[in-house]
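Request: Show me your protein:
***
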Amino acid sequence: MVGFCNYLICCLFSTKKFSKSKFKDYLVVYGYTSNLPLLLLGIFIIFWIYFFEKFYIATDITPYIDFTPYIIIFLVIFFSFISYKWILEIRINQAFFKINILKAIIPELIQIIEFIGFYILLNLIRGYISSSLEIV
C-alpha cells in the first residue's frame, strides 16, 4: 500500500502517466530495495532483545520507554535503519520518475508524518484507556 501511494504521488509530479506495466515495474524495484532495511532491522531487534536488553515500559514519554544509554543507542540504530529506508525510497522515486529530489521527497515526508502520528495516536489511546480504568 505504501508503494502504491508513493507511485500515485510521484505520478502527479512527473511526466509519466499511470500505467499498469510501469506500476508493476515500480513495485518490483520498490519491494526489493526499500524493504531490505526493515528486514535487517527485524533481525537486529531480535538479537538486541535476546542478547542485550529487554525494553522497559515505565515512563510517560513517547515511545513509553526509559531513556537509559542502551535504549538511546537502540533508538539511534533504529532511526538510522528507518532513515536509510527513506533515503532508498527517495532515490528510487528520483530515478524511476526522473524528477528532482524535492519532488521525490514528498512521499517520504507523508510517511514521516504518518510515523509521528502513530506515536501521537498511541499516546491518545493510552490516555483514554488509563483514564477509563481509574477507580475513584
Remarks:
- The helical segments are 2-13, 20-34, 36-52, 69-97, 101-133.
- The chain has one domain: 2-133.
- The chain has a mean pLDDT of 81.
- The first helix runs from residue 2 to 13.
